Amino acid sequence: MTIEVTDGNFEEVVINSEVPVLVDFWAEWCGPCRMVGPLVKEIGQEFEGRAKVAKLDVDSNPEVSAKFGIRNIPTILFFKNGKIVDKQVGAVPKNVISGKLEAIL
Fold first, then answer.
1. Per the residue annotation, which of 21, 30, 36, 73 is the catalytic one?
2. 30 a catalytic residue
3. What is the pTM of this model?
4. Of the listed 21, 33, 36, 40, which one is catalytic?
5. Total structural domains in the chain?
């Protein structure tokens, strides 16, 4: 399951999470984001119950995007205990993304 996060609920869903969180920063117009999106959705299903998988539309949520210095998309940030512990910029294969999430569990 993937969760839509916004400027309004980011702290509650991501920062205050008791489990690791993968956040996919994306935009509708971004071609590479559309390639990564289905992979993120699959990862959300595979890691359900062990981690949260979230998506944040950078166009609709500029505050969080600016706070974390998101300049290129897709960017995936990996959070544990409310802090960034890993980062992936650009389109990569699913095993790269899931491997990084597995490593922080």
1. 30
2. yes
3. 0.97
4. 33
5. 1
